[in-house]
Design brief:
10 strands, alpha/beta, globular
């Protein structure tokens, strides 16, 4: 459930705000780092500290009981004046937790000692935290609204929800076991892909030498040693790693935040790359459990890229970025997954096969009788500036450049899918001569390779662009009545649910139709039970903007399909061969 973080004005309505520097003064840096990493150890979903009273009881000691009660009563009065119920609010907010850690790491002097009492420390750290909630949520919303008012901008519900959710979606909406499973398997796929290519041999050897590992199996094995601490933790708190094998020191030291450099960067770029810090010799703490898991694959390309940049002559892999985004992501991984999902049924053609027949063909094509699935795959990212912008126009403009039409007027994913539809309906899709053009049902699917795009409202916004393209085709004389809505699917959701598809627990065809009907084409007049008031109407519309990934994961689990990780264990087994 989407929650709202309690801010400073809710806790201290009659108290003038101080500064972070003031609140965090008089407290030893080591103590502050431990406390802020403690906040980052909270579960993103179903935390035991989601209830405000439970958080207060955990955080404040007996000597601050009166202070805690007064603040709690202030919060209750604040909530009573809002339309949202008590259950919608909580104190912890991961963005504030990350900002707090980075501020302490970068700004608090190493020599700072504790001069405040324990009670003062609790009160001031709490003030600092809710002040950050004020800045990262309340102030952000205020500035965004001011920009819209000043420029007379009216957003649809989908656009408004996209602006609210996109900047922090990847930080709050995730399941750590799914992230781990997909990060591990994707890293394994990527290493396998690079190992098949002769021009990548010297790059891989340089990579292994830098990390002092034998091969990619050894590298992933050691990363599993780090991520294991996150996966197996049994309480919500900071996670520590105490080295018993000193040989791992050099490896883990290449993944820690350096005290000689700054962490603070827009969208936590530096913390994502180095999600641990050393607090004593051979003792480390996890800054972010999520970032620690995501560095397995998400961080892999950038680590390889940095090493490739230092290679000389023929050893350097040319076009390394395109190798990853095109040949690996759009061809190798997409084809590998879809062949597993569809099995040996139907007419299927990979992007490589299609390109050899017709330039500009889709990245994957499947036809089952009159039902056609066409895929475009885009391994893209959004700049940190656009992602974190207060102005919705910045985000939508970059999404348009990456997914609709770039600055030079070249067609991107949405227009490419529309052009594929045009060719199919016009009889120009020469790669499949058996298409029943007059009765074909065409399902356009856009596959994206980062889960940050699983933001509420995004599918609806992108689908509106596609529907405009279909309206233009209809005006040109083509019958688009059997062309379905465009659906966004992230590669990790395909990967996570591939066994359910391959074992025919569900079919891709069925879930595409169901999601289109119940979400993209949601009709409030058909809602059962009927909404009783405007709030229920609004809630139903917001639910209809749920990303496909959330819908599919929940559906598979409701069908009773147990994901026991067998596939992951089979893939991981190669790391533990007795003979390397």
């Amino acid at each position: 459930m989407f929650k709202l973080a309690i801010n400073y004005e809710a806790c201290f309505p009659r108290e003038e705000r101080g500064t972070l520097e003031n609140y965090l003064s008089g407290i030893a840096k080591s103590e502050l780092l431990k406390m802020s990493s403690f906040f980052l150890g909270f579960n993103p979903n179903n935390s035991r500290y989601s209830d405000i009273r439970d958080f207060f009881d955990m955080f404040f000691s007996a000597e601050n009981a009166e202070f805690s009660d007064n603040v709690f009563n202030n919060v209750l009065q604040y909530i009573a004046a809002t339309p949202q119920p008590y259950q919608m609010y909580e104190v912890p907010y991961v963005v504030s937790s990350l900002n707090l850690f980075e501020f302490i790491f970068d700004k608090i002097p190493e020599h700072q000692i504790t001069t405040k009492s324990n009670a003062e420390v609790e009160r001031d750290i709490f003030r600092a935290y809710v002040l950050l909630n004020q800045k990262t949520i309340t102030e952000r919303d205020r500035i965004s609204q001011q920009i819209r008012d000043d420029n007379d901008i009216t957003l649809s519900m989908a656009q408004a929800l996209l602006q609210i959710s996109f900047h922090n979606n990847d930080l709050i909406n995730y399941r750590i076991e799914k992230v781990f499973y997909c990060q591990f398997v994707r890293a394994l796929f990527y290493f396998e892909f690079l190992s098949f290519r002769e021009n990548c041999n010297e790059l891989l050897e340089a990579f292994y030498a830098f990390y002092e590992v034998v091969d990619y199996k050894d590298y992933l094995r050691r990363l599993l040693g780090i991520s294991h601490a996150v996966l197996m933790k049994d309480r919500e708190a900071h996670t520590e790693i105490h080295l018993e094998n000193i040989e791992n020191r050099a490896f883990i030291d290449k993944h820690i935040a350096s005290s000689d450099s700054l962490l603070t960067e827009l969208d936590f770029i530096n913390s994502r790359g180095n999600p641990l810090y050393k607090y004593e010799d051979d003792k480390y703490r996890i800054i972010s459990p999520l970032f620690t898991i995501e560095m397995i694959y998400n961080g892999l390309f950038f680590r390889l890229k940095n090493i490739n940049a230092d290679l000389q002559g023929a050893a350097k892999v040319s076009g390394f970025y395109n190798l990853k985004t095109y040949e690996y992501s759009e061809q190798y991984v997409l084809s590998k997954l879809l062949k597993e999902i569809y099995g040996n049924r139907y007419i299927q053609k990979s992007g490589a096969e299609l390109d050899a027949v017709l330039p500009g063909a889709p990245d994957y094509y499947m036809r089952n009788g009159k039902y056609i699935h066409i895929f475009e795959s885009k391994d893209i990212l959004i700049t940190k500036e656009s992602k974190q912008s207060f102005d919705y126009r910045d985000l939508e403009n970059e999404l348009s450049i990456k997914l609709y039409e770039n600055e030079k007027g070249s067609a991107k994913a949405v227009r490419q899918l529309a052009e594929t539809v045009r060719k199919i309906l016009s009889g120009e899709a020469t790669y499949d001569t058996g298409i029943p053009t007059n009765r074909s049902h065409i399902f356009p699917i856009l596959v994206l390779h980062y889960r940050l795009f699983n933001a509420a409202g995004m599918n609806s916004v992108i689908n509106e662009w596609f529907k405009n393209e279909m309206a233009a085709l209809q005006e040109s004389g083509l019958d688009t009545s059997r062309v379905h809505d465009l659906i966004l699917i992230d590669i990790e959701t395909l990967l996570f649910n591939r066994e359910a598809f391959a074992n025919r627990i569900i079919s891709l065809q069925d879930v595409l139709l169901e999601y289109e009907k119940n979400y993209l084409r949601f009709d409030i007049t058909k809602a059962r039970p009927r909404p009783k008031n405007q709030r229920e109407v609004s809630d139903l519309f917001q639910k209809s903007l749920t990303p496909f990934s959330f819908y599919l994961d929940n559906k598979v689990e409701k069908l009773g399909y147990r994901r026991n990780g067998d596939d992951l264990l089979q893939k991981a087994a190669v790391l533990f061969d007795e003979e390397e």
